[in-house]
Structures are given as structure tokens and as C-alpha cells.
Write a structure and sequence with these properties.
20 helices; about 80% helix; globular
Amino acid sequence: MNLIAKFKETVNSVLPVMIIVLILGLTVAPLGLDLITRFIVGGVLLILGLTIFLLGVDVGIQPMGEQIGAALTIKRSLSFLLIVSFIIGFLVTVAEPDIQVFGDQIHKVFDCVDKMQLVYMIAGGVGLLIMLGLLRTILSMNLKITLLICYIAVFVLAYFTPASFKGIAFDSGGATTGPMTVPFILALGVGVSSVRAAGKNNNNDDGFGLTGVTSVGPVIAVLLYGIILFKCGILTDSAVSEEIAEESKGLGIFIRIIPGIFHESILSIAPLAGLLVVFQIFLLHLPPRKLIRMIIGLVYSFIGLSIFLVGVNGGFMSAGSKLGLLLGTKAVVSGGFWYFLLIVTGLILGAVVVCAEPAVWVLTEQVENLSGGAIKRKLMLLFLSAGAAIAIGLTMWRAMAGFSLMKILVPGYAIALGMMIFCPSLFTAIAFDSGGVASGPITSTFVLSFTIGASQAAGGNGDSFGVIALVAMTPLIAIQVLGIIYNQKVKKVMKIKNADTGGEQ
């Protein structure tokens, strides 16, 4: 049954993190009975909510995206396709669970930042870059050149953005591409690629790359948002909350936050329902059975999103920030073993989070199939988990040392963009698509909260952001390395075949 499969996926993602937290929270960094209890309850609700939400995505939202994508391509109107793709990108991003959680965490640290303003800026960035990505596919623009231009724009804007806001901007790119957004993006990309220029030669990578291009949009939008806030005097490098606000104790917090969470969930899902109604009337004309199934999927998504957010806000994130604060404080005060333990915890979390992410398993299987078995799934998982482990380990080090995020991001992206010269186009497309895949719900919730706590211990809340960005950056390098290895293997095989053929002749 699909529900059971989704439940297993979610448990495999969340349970390893819960075990690590419980071991640390009951031994070296006591969290207290109240917080541990809320963490367990929050974790159970997170698993339940994410399971129902993902089921809703499969039942209603993904088919809806596929139907809309197909309908848009059949119309064969470029302007109509681009306008509607912007609207779709905007609405599905607003409904993305990771973005809702991400916005809450930003507001806690930067109380001068309005959560919904930030969400709308991110959504607008997604919509605009979906338009650019689809236009690239239609006009057969080179993906590598498109990505290069986009990232040049990113780093130019980053130069003018306040230092405390740069991590938020880069994190937004990884947080955006979640279980709600990706199905729509992929549906649009595949639909346009399949219809594009019938009779022309299609590149194999035409079906890939849209997610990678789209994920740049939130980064650009939030960088611009940071510049605007800075110019208006609303945001400064010192505009960071001095401490994490004291939260309510006891299990009653789960009940108290339900009305607000329900309101947020309605605001997230209702636009998608409206979109379905409009498309059904004017374009889709689906039979009642299919329409009812999609509506049921939206209801599942609403229920799942609500339960997920209650679990996350009720205890899951609180335990993460508290654990990071305790370990970070001991590292600052005592150094030595505690400094080592903090970084090792980050390394373990990175490896666990990536290996447990369901979307990563889908990606590794895809690459193994595309390479004809030359690049094994296990090898790719090893590269990705090592990359994520290093990313979170570096984040813990940065939280303690306080050096600029750009000292990691600039050389990292320089390497990733430089590797495009030597990497096959297909693997470059997959690599940039996978950037958002590696950073799932656990990274956006627990890992970010853990990093915020550790950063607060060192006196720098604003420096805590950037962990999602680093986790999203490592696949760009890892998969392109594998692509270069694969390309070399293909060349060797071709040389051997040519030699054998020449010998026979």
C-alpha cells in the first residue's frame, strides 16, 4: 500500500536523527524530561504528518502538476505557458512545508523580517526562474551557460547584501525544492521537453536542469530583499535577536499552536485548490473521478501539512536548538573534547540525513540507470553522504570560529562551475537538480535549529544560516566528479572497441 511505503520512507528519514538526539539528550547534553517528551511527541507528529502529506502529493498534487503541464504544452502558446508557469511556481512554493518552517526560523532570529514577505519573495523568485528555465528548454539554450550567468548574478548581488543575510539567501535555494515544489517543476520540465520542437534533435539533458535553474531564483530574490531591507534601515548586521525566545513548556503547547498552524495551512493549500478549479473550468475538463481524486489529495496534503507543522513547532525544532546550544556552550567554555564532539555530531547528522532522504535514493537509482550501471548507487551515496557530513561539520566549525560563509561558498561554487567544463552535460544537469534534493525536511527543521543553537552559544545567531546551502552545494561537486569518472570510463571502452575493430580490419 502506498501509505505504508510513505510511512517507511518518513520513518527512515526521521528515526536516525531522533535516536542521535535521544542518546545525546540523555547523556552528555541533558535536555530535561519536558523537552525530551515534547521532542518525541513532535517527532511522532512529524512522521505522521509528513507521511500523510507525501501521500497527498502522490494522490493529488503530482497528477495535478502533470495534467497542468501537459495542458500548457498542448496550447503551444509561449506567453501563456510562461505566465501560468510563474503563477504555478509562486503558489506551490507558498505551500511548501520546508519554506513555512524556514520562514518561522528566520523570523525567530531576525524579528525585523516579516515571515510572509520573505515567503512571497522566495515564491516570486521561484516563479521567475521557472519561466527562465522553461524558456531555456524551448529556445535550446545551453544549460551550462545559463547556470553560469545565474550564479554570476548571485555572487554580484551577494557582494552588496548584509553579511548576516547572505546565509539566509543561499539557504532559501535548498529549502525551496521540497516535496511540494519538485513534482510541479518536473512535470512542467518533462512536458515542455517532450513537446519541444518536434523533429529537432533533442539533447538528453533537456528533461533535466529545470530544478537546478529554479533553485537559483529564491537566492536572487532573498539577496535583493536583504539589500532593500538594508537600504531602508530595517536590517543591519546587528539586527539579530540576542537570544532564542523561551518557549512554553508542557504538552499543552501542541494544542495551543493548532489554530495558528491551521490558518497557515489553509493559506498554503487554498491557492492550489483555486488553481485546480480554474484549470478544470477553462482547460483541463477532467472526468469527475480524476477530479475527486485530486481534491482528496489536496485534503490529505492539508491535514498532513498541519500535523507536520504542529510537530515541528511543538517540540522538534526546540530540541534541536537546545541541543546545539548546550553542546556549543560546552565547546566555547571547555573546548577540547566538547569542540570535537560538536563537530563530530555535525558530521554524523550530515551523513545520516542524506542517506535517509527518500529523494536521494530516487536520484542515485536514476544516475545508476543513466550510466548503464557504471556508477553504482552505493558509490554515489558514499560521495553524497561524505559531502553532506563535511558540509554540516564545516557549519559547526564556522559557528564556533565565526568566519564568513562566503569563504566556503565562493570556492565551493567556483569548483562546481569550473567542473562543468569537463563534465558531461547530462551529469551537470542532474548535479544541479540534485542540490535541492539533498536538503530535505530534516535539514530545514532539525539541522538548521541545531546550528542556530550552536551559533547562539558562540554569540552569533546570524552566522547560523548557510547549513542548508552547504548541504545543497555538495551534490554539485560530488555528482559532477562521478560524471567525469563515467566519461573517462566511456572513453576507455571506446578506445578498446576501436582498437579491436582496427585489429580485425
